[in-house]
Amino acid sequence: MEPQVKRLKGSDCGGSDSWVAEPVLSDEQSADVELVAVYAAPVLDRKQTSRLVRQLNAVFPLDGLQHLKRVRTARDQNSPHPLEVLLCRSGEAADAAELGSLLPSDGNSWEGLGRPFVVLVPARPPLTRPQYQQASSFWPTSFHEDKRVTEALRGALFSPQQRVAMTSFMVAAVTAARAAAQLGMEAVGAAVVDPETERVVAVGHDLRGEHPLLHAVMVCIDLVARSQGGGWYRNQNRYPACSFAPAGPQGGAEPYICTGYDLYVTREPCAMCAMALVHSRIGRVFYGTGSAHGALGSRMKIHVHKDLNHRFQVYSGVLRGECQALQGDA
Amino acid sequence: MATEEGRKAEPEVVFSVTEEEINRWMSRAFEMARDALDNGEVPVGCLMVHRDQVVGKGRNQVNETKNATRHAEMVALDQVLDWCYQKNLDMRSVCRQTVLYVTVEPCIMCAAALRLVNIPLVAYGCRNERFGGCGSVLDISTANLPNSGTAFRCVSGHRAQEAVEMLKTFYKQENPNAPKPKTRTD
Questions:
Q1: Residue A67 sits in which domain range?
Q2: Which of A10, A111, A110, A23 is nearest to A60 (CA)?
């Protein structure tokens, strides 16, 4: 009889515990928290807090620092003044840390504020939970959480069932890559999937031996076009590991290029292929292993470029071991 | 890596084009762009010229093929490949002495493709603010990129206003192939 306990432990998802799909985030999302110097002051009289905050909001509206809470509890628990309030950016006033020189005395009473001090606070709103945690260690910060990013960073975005399906799609890409290697092409394979129906729309591999620009992704994009009654190249016909499933008559909307589709590709796409995916309006990209000239994380991040009109999610590391082994074969 | 280094060390053929050549070939590229516009495609046209001979020409064919990568440059590069095949010539050696004339700055994808096949010089009309890969959005043309072919030089501005006007005319029309925006019911 099978040792049942062991089975349960070892095979909870996608065949292994080490299943990964690391989100490839923008530089802004991945960066350490950037800090800026501001003046703050202890609140000497707690009862004055709301009045002081109101006055400060009017005089120093914290332009560009709206993500910061105006008041925090003092870090030092033994402090005689348990609350501290943000005054202004330290660049906005002279270095003098006297209340009189920092705050205008036009009718407002600043009674209840203590001697100002300089403190480093997060310069930008946090974009991810790790950034939020880091930012909050400097000054209380508000955070508009993107739940998807948090779950993805925790490695908890995809259910065990989804992982099994996703693994099978990458296996299709790996199988195509092996076929390419057999033909003397580069060992790169790709599969395009409709995640709604889990239907594989196209599987293709590198055909650089035919044409220097027929990278696996370009081959797949054309196979998707063929599934929609279009397409340009016919040379894939000679390669049995390159195939597409014609889009059947469906109740839903007509498919439009790669809109809503996922791409599984064994190696991180180059700039040409990454931009081809932008033009094709791909939904998400999963790749196995990075590449020195990769444009979806390694050398560039075309999928999150602010000036481009289509952005998409990218995850790396799906079947990394198998995908790296392909590179070794080359 | 070693081959990449070796390639860089080769003495580069410095290509230049005369005003007369730009006038002559660009007017044909504009004819291609006009043809694209007449056929409901983004009006971009181009010519690949090798030793005073047209070895490839193209215009945008995205809607016709339902393949969003069928830009003028990609279409023309396919023709160059066919031409080389028929003449039994090596595509890369031909491309190293081929100039691209195109009405609009190549996009990031096309710029990367042009690097991969070692095109040394591109003459283009107007900038491509949406997708340009020769400086407008990213600078793929001259960037120092590993394993990504060779950098190329650009000569820009010829009949730029006319090229922009054609794009504006196109984008004023609705793309008949785009899916209708879904109205939210929830």
A1: 35-123
A2: A110
